[in-house]
Amino acid sequence: MMITESLLEGMRLVASTSATNSTETQLYMTVQPDGLYAYVGSTPPQVYFSKSVNKNKTGKDATEVTFMNGSLSISVQSKQPDESHTSIQLPAANSTQYMRLESDGHLRLYEWSNADAKWAVVSDVIKLFPDDCAFPTVCGEYGICTGGQCVCPLQNNSSSSYFKPVDERKPNLGCVSLTPISCQEMQHHQLLTLTDVSYFDAGHIVVNATNGEDCKQACLKNCSCRAVMFRYGQNDSDGTCLWVTRVFSLQSIQPEIVHYNSSAYLKVQLSPSTSASNANKKKVMLGATLGAITILVLLVIAVILYVRRKKKYQELDEELDFDQIPGMTVRYTFENLRECTGDFSKKLGGGGFGTVFEGKIGEERVAVKRLEGARQGKKEFLAEVETIGSIEHINLVRLIGFCAEKSERLLVYEYVPRGSLDRWIYYRHNNAPLDWCTRHRIILDIAKGLCYLHEECRRIIAHLDIKPQNILLDENFNAKVADFGLSKLIDRDQSKVMTMMRGTPGYLAPEWLTSQITEKVDVYSFGVVVMEVICGRKNIDISLPEESVQLIKLLQKKAEDNQFIDLIDNHSEDMVFTPRGSSSIVEACNVVPAK
After folding, report:
1. Which residues pair with 411 in a beta bridge?
2. Hey, where are the domains in the chain?
3. CA-to-CA distance for 125 and 142, rounded, in angstroms?
4. What is the mean pLDDT of residues 3-14?
5. Residue 465 annotated among the catalytic residues of the structure
6. CB 349: neighbour CB atoms within 10 A?
7. 330-414, what's its fold?
8. How far, rounded to the nearest angstrom, does the alpha carbon of residue 39 sit from its chain's CA centroid?
9. Integer-rounded Cα radius of gyration of the chain
């Protein structure tokens, strides 16, 4: 039983303040000729969700959104036989259901629970991502959402503050400008730069602004503009300028995950006195600078001598560090490795603070990892040399040698010909699917490598970055654990160890929330990798329907319904059609904790 609801073209569904307060908010949904849209009110309104229907619509056709059992259907009511429609899948109704647009912008599906005698949420219909950062009011106006946490904007590389929280104890209420924008004093407008910050609405495009500077100037010339977001791919001279007249919640992004770059420029008001003060300061600074030139010239020689001496001592300290590493492997010169890799010409892959190149030392093929940035990579470099150089196991990548010359840090590994596991289970390189026997052996190999690290070394070695990209396959598809750049040594009398969060999102165990971890965090990551091997997909894949985006949550549901078989990768026939193989796969699934 359910409540059937329809929304016709031109009608609005407006969110109320709460279930008991019918006061309307600025959030609403409406049906337009090409589909269903959700807006937050401003001039013009800003869209934060859309679901379009593909159709050839005539003037007499009408678009309708209907809430039916198991779906939210968007259709064109036409006299033509080829009626167009699309839908959003919902949980099937077990009892009475209804849908409500709520004050936070979420469209939630409720169902009556006879057992608890109350309404319960069974679906967050338009939520596409794990956190709420894509919703326009999650952090109020001007608030920046990062992983569900809200902060006020702060100029890049500056302690200057132009915003303050509406309520210090409630950061989700947003931020306000310390000085309101005044159109009578446009000469005192300035743009606050925020890198790696995006915005939910991509609908307001400034046409003739394809680079960041033009985008900023267009906003400064129009007082109604309160912010612009410049979004681009690899080239910042060719992007899209997004214009807003009212700034709602912004969100932090990781360019390597979303595959685009974005900077936000927020308009702020400088008071005339501040501007005059800044001008006077510039004059004073100019005079002081001219007066100091003579002194600086006299100090140059002393500075150069100091830097040279400091550099000499740093190099000596670093040489001592590497000379004192126990179980020293072969040490190569930088020129040796440049020559053996053909001047680093054949790239095998990247990640883990560096890039990996193919090389040849004598008759042996090797993989040379060149760390990028000695200051950033020294700690990770030492961890890898100390850890891998002192252990040897058939399921761990063997470290042959290293190089440490001035700022250059390189590691020489055995060459593993078939590359990393992700190439074979994500189907990005047109590789043939792996059969279940091979996958099962790979899973066991990873487990053997981790078991050695955790139980058979003098000190427990926690890898801390187990993922398919760090599992390499030899010519016979034997698996080897690689990349110990983030590893942590744990004394066997320690129950837990404190360390900062590290690793890769999607593979991090819940213990990381407290930063008190054990080697069991590797076991959690291993479980995620096992499911990826069995299912032939990434743990988090936003290209899939909402209910399937997170593999582990999907696993929990399938475990409750005893439907593990639905998760098996259907690219490989022996995994799907062989009864013995299927039972073995289900047994492997049962090893992975589902809750």
Report:
1. 369, 402
2. 5-124, 144-273, 330-414, 422-591
3. 26
4. 84
5. yes
6. 17
7. Phosphorylase Kinase; domain 1 (3.30.200)
8. 25
9. 29
Task: Give me the sign of the Cα torsion angle 508, 510, 515, 516.
Answer: negative
Contact at 8 Å (CB) between 503 and 445? no
Structure tokens at 558: 């399938």
Query: What's the pLDDT tens digit per position in 357-411?
Result: 999 998 899 999 887 755 445 666 666 677 777 788 999 998 888 888 877 888 8
* CATH superfamily of the domain spanning 422-591: Transferase(Phosphotransferase) domain 1 (1.10.510.10)
How far is the C-alpha of 119 from the C-alpha of 111, rounded, in Å? Answer: 5
H/E run at residue 485? none
Q: What are phi and psi of 349, to 5 degrees?
A: 175, -175
Task: Say whether 369 counts as a known binding-site residue.
Answer: yes
What single string gives the DSSP state of each residue in 223-270?
Answer: TT--EEEEEESS-TTSEEEEEESS---EEE--HHHHSSEEEEEEEEE-
CA distance 8 to 579: 50
Q: Do residues 479 and 472 make contact, with C-beta atoms less than 8 angstroms apart?
A: yes
Q: 428: closest CA among 531, 506, 349?
A: 349
Q: Which of 465, 483, 522, 569 is catalytic?
A: 465
**At 75, phi and psi to the nearest 5?**
-140, 160
Per DSSP bridges, beta strands 62-68 and 5-8 are: antiparallel
Q: pTM above the 0.70 mark?
A: no
Spatial CA neighbour of 423 closest among 435, 431, 415, 414: 431
203 CA to centre of own chain: 23
